[in-house]
Amino acid sequence: MQATAHIGFIGAAYGACIIVIGALIAWVTLDYRMQRRILAELEAQGIARRSAPVRESAGQTATEDA
Fold first, then answer.
1. 3-state DSSP of 26-43
2. Are 49 and 39 in contact (CB under 8 A)?
3. Are residues 54 and 62 in contact, defined by beta-carbon separation less than 8 angstroms?
4. Rg (CA), the chain
5. What is the pLDDT of residues 6-59, one digit of tens each?
6. Dihedral, CA of residue 46, residue 48, residue 54 and residue 56, to nearest 10
7. Is the dihedral of CA 23, 29, 32, 37 positive or negative?
8. Which residues contact 54 (CB under 8 A, 6 or more apart)?
9. Measured at the alpha carbon of residue 30, what is the angle toward residues 28 and 35, in degrees to the nearest 5?
10. Is 46 left (phi over 0), alpha (psi -120 to 50) or beta?
């Protein structure tokens, strides 16, 4: 069996994989930038993330309130 008989299929498969992986990388990168921009806009409006550290008020911590 000659490997050259299938070289077109192999090249097309590799090409398709490169295109799909490149598109996924571009999509994730663009989405990351968009999410960072949205988060910055929300923080500029004064809306804090829930994962942000809780500010202590009057010497109490979050565990003391529970």
1. HHHHHHHHHHHHHHHHHH
2. yes
3. yes
4. 25
5. 999 999 999 999 999 999 999 999 999 999 999 999 989 888 777 756 666 655
6. 0
7. negative
8. 61, 62
9. 90
10. left
